[in-house]
Amino acid sequence: MEPIISIKNLYKSYGQKLVLKGINLDIYPGQVIGYIGPNGAGKSTTVKILCGLISDYEGQVSVKGINLKENAVAVKSYIGYIPELAELYDVLTPVEFLSLMAELYNMDATIAQERMTKMLSAFGLQANMNDRMDTFSKGMKQKVLITSGLLHNPDIIILDEPLSGLDANSVIIVKDLISKLAKDGKTIFYCSHMMDVVEKVSDRIVLIDEGAVIANGSFEELQQQQGNESLEKIFAHLTAKESLSKAADELMSAFD
Amino acid sequence: MNIFNKILLKLVLFPSGLYTRMGVNVNHLKAILTTKLMMDDRRPNSFQQMQQKRRKKTISTATLSTMLMALIAGGLFAFISALLDNTLTKFTIYFSFYITFLASILIADFTSVLIDVRDSYIILPKPVTDRTFVLSRLLHIFIHVCKIVLPMALPGAVIFVINYGAWAIAAFAPMVLTATLFTIFLINACYILILKITTPQKFQNIISYIQIAFAIFFYACYQLVPRMMGRFSGLDISRGKAIILLPPFWFAGGWQQIYSPANSIQLWCCLLLSFAVPLFSLWLVIKYFAPAFNQKLAMIGGGTTEGTALNKVVKKEKSTSSYSQRLAGLITRHGAERSGFIFTWKMMLRSRDFKMKVYPAIGYMIVILVLMFFNMRGLTLNDISLQDDKGRIAILIVIYFSNLLLVSALGQITLSDKFKAAWVFFTAPVDVPGKILSGAIKAAISQFFFPVAAVTLIALISLAGISVIPNALFGICNELLITGVSAYFIADKLPFSSPQSIRSSSKGMLRVFSVMIIGSLLAVLQYILYKITPVIIILTILSAVASWMVFDSIKKYTWKKVQRRYEE
Fold this sequence. Notes:
The structure holds 2 protein chains of 2 kinds. By secondary structure, chain A is α/β, with parallel strands linked by helices. Helices cover 40% and strands 23% of the residues of chain A. Chain B is mainly α. Chain B folds into 2 domains: 3-42 and 61-300, no CATH class; 323-567, no CATH class.
């Protein structure tokens, strides 16, 4: 089977700082990839490259056989990007914002309208569909963002901390949604710091640290390699520079 | 969308066939422009921002308000310049105002409206081609500028047609166009220069300072220009040798040369410069500066920790206690009062919102003082030195106006957009919130009154000798007393803990007037008693004691009293 996303020797630097140091990754259709790593590891940069936000990188990235550098627009039409608590044009209402999204994805207006109504209702935002988003809470805005990323029924969905700001019920909805999307054959690239969620939803976990992939496999495979522990502990073993318990001791010693 | 946006949108989408041939997706272009114009209508301009915050009302007519503001401004410029006799002077003044006003609007609008960094996250991940995106931006800028320029130029066009006939328009229109292009270049150049010499993070602060400077400039013009019209109505500006270096003169000369061609090298130069410089400079911006400019501008909107290249080593603190901490140690007590002082001191220096509201008062103060001296005919330095009638009035004006900045600051120290962060005060075990308030007020006095009072005292002593000291000190003590009394009523909430509201604003205005009236009464009393030094000394002591008592009563504010203020 051909990978739906293929990343080969991906390098990216900001000035003197090399942020991605030769990422190699093949993602197959229908997989849910948990992309995890400490702050500053290179997760956001990888995601931005995949979404076409960064074009000055070295290496090869192709999506559905299309070279990202050669035809970014075609690649973007296959991807739904759901960022973490990102900026919205918050003077707009959800309907106005999503209509713009629909138009940019060349969706039929009727289908778009129907779909956004159903999705916003499922998220409990039916009463707020025509309210300006500058009055919305964090969670409400995140629900609109999730809707905007899924509206055009993309084959590839990239989520960056999608559960941030959501209440418990909405978290259950989104987790269930990810499973159902995967069963439907969608490919999901899921970035998060919530290890318990990543552990449960991901078919494969890719751990990145300091711009390089340091672990790549299913949760069971990682457990076999690193010991039969939770993903949180595996993450700590592989990425913590010093003992975390020691760090906690040092914090406590501040009270002495 | 309002009618003007609809008309302009139709106008710019008219050559859709051409756009399609250029490789632009016209449907995407229309969707982006429609959304941007809708957002423009709902995004208040800097004048409306205050109104919106106070009323908590959404705005949907921002475009119309901006156009009205531009129309009124244009009418004012045209009217003022029409009072002048000499044509070149008239048009130079007109284009000076035109360029300055347009620049003052665009300098803020560029980051907030025209180059919206959110586009990177919202539009760019979508399948929109670069050409479509760039064209949408350019057309949005074009529409936005038209909405300011057309109403602003209209009154001028009408007045100049009345004065010079219909042909005046044929000369006026191209000059307005090139002056607009030149202003856009100036703003671009200003942005590029700022981004070159500072970081994207400090960028917004610098833009705020520039806006403050514009606010002071326009206030000064508002006060001084009408008064100067009488003296300079016959001035012929073209006689100055260096006048050719002034860009507004190019457009004035260009107008003259198109309207009524003359065999004048100066005017031919003006005509050439008025076309060549704007077009060349725009080409420069697009060709060489725009790519790096866009990249840096994207960083203003924030980014991830990954992108920030740490070039500088963090500077080591020179001493463990900063100036504010040393000052707090001298004039406040340890605990809540000192914390309130240091917190307020740093917030006043760092809060862009606070600076935008208070710092223009520095300029207004200087303008008002200059105006008052301008109006006091026959006043000389000798009058001040002798402290005769005129001299005494001048001295008292300087002393009693010196706290204008402080009153302005006191009106703002309880207010903030980030007022919710004040939860820290309510959850901390502070027994008497008055201590925090006292610290905050002392910080405001230290930052905005003591330096002004010191400069005033030094200036008065150098002009009038040490005999002025008793009256100067009496005036300063009275100022402190007035400040204490106004703080008792204005600064009755914790620092930076309350949102802006119409009520707070109108209360603030009322108190400024009250302060001015009380100050005026005290100034009159001091004028009467000026020469009676023993009485002045006794009253100085009484004033100082009264000030101390007022500040002490603020320190005793209880939670019950403070909470009541928030509930009102």
